[in-house]
Amino acid sequence: MKGTEWYQADEIAEAYDDKRFSGGGQFIDRREKTAVRNALGPVADKEILEVACGTGRFTVMLAQLGADIVGLDVSGPMLAQGREKAQAVGVDDTVEFMRGDAARLPFPDDHFDAVFAMRFFHLADRPVTFLKELARVSAGPVLFDTFNLESSRVLYNWLLPMGSRLYSRQAVESLLADAGVDLIDATHDFVLPYGFYRSLPTRIARPFRKLDRAIGSAGGGDRVASVSYWVVE
C-alpha cells in the first residue's frame, strides 16, 4: 500500500481530521457521508464493516444511526482516534475497532449486511484482491470510491508526497469484471480536486462548491468529476 508508514504515524492521525475536514474540507466530509448513507440505506440493527476506517468518521456516524459496525484499519494511531470519538458520543458499545489487513479479512463469507471502503482504492496496490475480499464478506452492497484519471486530479496528483492511483472508466470496468462483481450504482462529483477545498476557509469555499456542483450537473459533468462512488454486489 502507498504511504503505509506515513499513514501510521501518531502525528498524522492526531491532525488528520482537522487538516482535511475543517474549513472548505467540510464540503468534502458532508459529500462523502452522504455517499455512504445513500449507498447503505437504513442501517439500524444491520452489521456493517468499514475497511480503512481511519479516524472513524463514518464508523461513528453509522453507529449513531443504529448500526452494529466494525471498523478495520492498518494504523493503530488512527484506530485510537476512532475509539476516542466513539466513546465521546456514547456509541463505543456498538462499534469495534480492529487492526487488520484488507487483503485477508478475518471474517467468513457473507458475514456483513454491507461493506464499504472510502479513501482506500487510490492507495491500493492490489485493487482486485481488495475488492474480492470486500465482496466476499458482504451479503449485500459494497461501496468504494476512486479518484479519476480524466479529471483535474491529475494536476493535483503531482503535488502529493506519495501520489495516488487514478482510475479511468475502462480501468474501473476491468476491476469490477476481474473481481466478479456487478455495478449497482455510480455517482460522480468534485470537478475541483479535494486539495483545492482544503486550502480555503469555509466562506470562500462555499461559492466554489456551488459552481462545482453546477458544472457537475451539466451535460458531460460526470466525465470530468475527480471522484466517483461505486456500489457493487
TrEMBL record:
It comes from the Archaea. It holds the Pfam family Methyltransf_11. GO terms for biological process: methylation. Keywords: Methyltransferase, Transferase. Gene3D superfamilies: Vaccinia Virus protein VP39. Residues 49-137 form the Methyltransferase type domain. The keyword tRNA-binding does not apply. GO terms for molecular function: S-adenosylmethionine-dependent methyltransferase activity. InterPro entries: Erg6_SMT_methyltransf, Methyltransf_11, SAM-dependent_MTases_sf. PANTHER family: GERANYL DIPHOSPHATE 2-C-METHYLTRANSFERASE, ZGC:194242. This is SAM-dependent methyltransferase. It comes from Halonotius aquaticus.
